[in-house]
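Progress narrative, Year 2. Work on Myosin A from Toxoplasma gondii FOU advanced from sequence curation to structure prediction during this period.
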Amino acid sequence: MASKTTSEELKTATALKKRSSDVHAVDHSGNVYKGFQIWTDLAPSVKEEPDLMFAKCIVQAGTDKGNLTCVQIDPPGFDEPFEVPQANAWNVNSLIDPMTYGDIGMLPHTNIPCVLDFLKVRFMKNQIYTTADPLVVAINPFRDLGNTTLDWIVRYRDTFDLSKLAPHVFYTARRALDNLHAVNKSQTIIVS
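Result:
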């Protein structure tokens, strides 16, 4: 069972949140774009459970330039509209399947809630490796996923086009080895 977040951890997380976002939920006529989604740290579920940090919401009609009228959609269960100042709204990567992108840098929006959601979706589908090129982000699943067998090693060792393969520590090792031979300079891999 996960431990509760301490007040010090919450203060640190709050300090890391970018306080400005370029969210444009309304057109020039003042009408809300249909189905426009945002992340916010002021949603009812976040107030109830601060460990969530962000919730996904749909912007509703009645929104003005200073505040967004929203209804929470993820996690579900809160149907009442609430107000969100622009400073507490972040764009959502709508219609993006995290399984089709292996690199965080390919996302249209790389704000904190988008990156956390991206990593979460990939992790829940047993994709524990993601790149932020040239870095590899690995989330420990605390179980064997069967992705370090000889077949996996051979796949990454023998492929002609490494870019066609999913992020993996073997991908990083292969790139370092290729670079070692291509530029004839020492390579460094930092594990932290």
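The mean pLDDT is 89. The beta strands are 37-40, 55-59, 67-74, 82-85, 89-91, 129-132, 135-138.
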